[in-house]
Amino acid sequence: MVKVYSITNCPWCDKLKKYLKSKGVDYEEHNIETNEDDLKECIRLTNDEAVPVTTADGKNYVLGFDKTKIDELLGI
Amino acid sequence: MSVYDFTAKTNSGEEKSLRDYEGKVLIIVNTASKCGFTPQYKELQELYDKYKDKGLEILGFPCNQFAGQEPGTNDEVRQFCRRNYGVSFQIFEKGDVRGETAQPLFKYLTKEKKFEGFDKNHPIAEKLTEALKANFPEYLEGDGIKWNFTKFLIDRKGNPVKRFEPTTTPSDMAADIEKLL
Q1: A11/B35 touch (CB, cutoff 8 Å), yes or no
Q2: Domain B3-180 is found in CATH 3.40.30.10
Q3: On the CB side of A47, how many CA atoms lie within 13 Å of its CA?
Q4: In B, which residues are within 8 Å of A52 by CB distance?
Q5: Complex ipTM
């Protein structure tokens, strides 16, 4: 399952989610502002508190709304 | 007329008169709460840490009028959001800062201190101008706020002294701040 780490009121997170929906990608959203465990997980993965972060395997990830890199990561 | 004639709601919903800041040097800035030129948040916080004991206060006014827009190919405008910049200065409620719907404080500030162009030496100045021309040409006209992180420096009597465009990084304001402290 594809995971998206996000925060509230983040235009880039919204754009990313819209993009994934348009491509028919199922994803779980993890809001790192409202959930401490998600925050810890995101920091463990990226060493940072920046979002959106997209990952499929919990190891490789893309930071930000970078369509080219996201397509590559998810093979879409 | 001075900035003390205005009130604003803090981000916790409390009505605050700017007269509460009488006698302080102020920076009033429209911020993008989490995106945009957000690295300037960090520099503003550094200014605040350095000068707050000498009487500097920073008033941040988050505004979504610029934040949600795609900057096109401008890859220097950060295309992600950050959870936390460790900001401890006062943040006010989200509101508009340009056009008809702008908060009265910003209408006053932009009338007092007009747009005098971007700092052309700033690495983003050219790209910002191009992005504005392409997406919001009307923003380039007149004295309204052009983009996030337009900073107004206010003296100890509440008078706007100087306007700094987004293309001036906060650390470059230090000399002007020191003059007023």
Answers
A1: yes
A2: yes
A3: 1
A4: 80-81
A5: 0.84
